[in-house]
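Sorry to interrupt, but I need a hand with the structure work. Could you add the entry underneath, on a fresh line?
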Amino acid sequence: MQRIIKNNQIVDETWHLLPKETSFDELTNCDDYIVPLQMWRDHAHVLKARDGGLGIWLDSDEEAEEIGEDVQHFQVIALNFPAFTDGRSYSNARLLRDRYKFKGELRAIGDVLRDQLFFMARCGFDAFAIRADKDPEDALQSLKDFSVTYQGATDEPLPLFRRR
């Protein structure tokens, strides 16, 4: 079982992250699923009526605006980082938190490394599925790398000079 960082703790993963090629017919009614955007587009009305938890994941080339009006239906929104050098999901995180007021779990998935976690948290992420070959205990410590931030962001809207 994979372990993730959620709310500054390491916990066992309980959600099923479905690959893009998953058939809708494979889903059960009671499990907690994080579905790809295309499955949501095709089966939103049925997914909303299920008994299990519902989450969605966006690839880095998919826009937060596509689900902006539907965020109230999701308990988890996962944003994929296909490569650590691809930062488009940072922008989606800011949009989901700041513009669409998403209050549920915002999870980073994919090529997620220790050095990114502090900056991901500043953009609104509160859960991180660390790459399988990396140590989540070590990654958790990176959230304490900096004690003061100068710029305003999702986690602290006021810049330092306004906080004094």
The CA atoms of residues 17 and 34 lie 5 Å apart. The longest strand covers residues 76-81. The mean pLDDT is 94. Residues 37-49 form the longest helix (13 residues).
